[in-house]
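Problem 12. The chain below contains 161 residues. Write out its predicted structure in token notation.
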Amino acid sequence: MMERMEEYIIMEETAALVPQYDEYGRLGTIVYELYNTYEVEQSPKQIMEQSCRYYGSTYEGKVHAAKHILGIRQMVPVSVCEALRLYFFPTCSPDSDRCIWIAQSHIKTIQPYEKKKTKVILKNKQELIVDIQKGTLEGKMYKTAMLIFILQQRIVNNYEK
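Solution.
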């Protein structure tokens, strides 16, 4: 049986935040970590918001910055903590109760799965089935990689001055 928690802070081991309703109809999260899986009472978006605050920023600020940096308007990746390289992207609108947040660094491979779905294989061999096509998921991974690259380049370029 999975360990239950009231709250959760994203860390380097965090691979994915998957929404799940409990027996009372409350939205919570299944947190996939490298070596553990937890049931958390918070929604995935609440975990994202609290984790951004924990690492010294706001979720809204991170979203606004990513939109500005990438020049896109919706479903942007979020850099929860640059120092720990915690970059997550949403599988659909973060306001949707179906939105899964996936850590870019924990993805091993992705494969098409059934109609309009994708199988995400994490580095620890866990598998997630997400409700979007492989090409769409690849686009989200690409945008996340661009965000990581641009932020890292800015740090490097800043040191070179």
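Discussion. The two ends are 54 Å apart (CA to CA). Students who got a different answer should revisit the alignment rule from Section 12.3.
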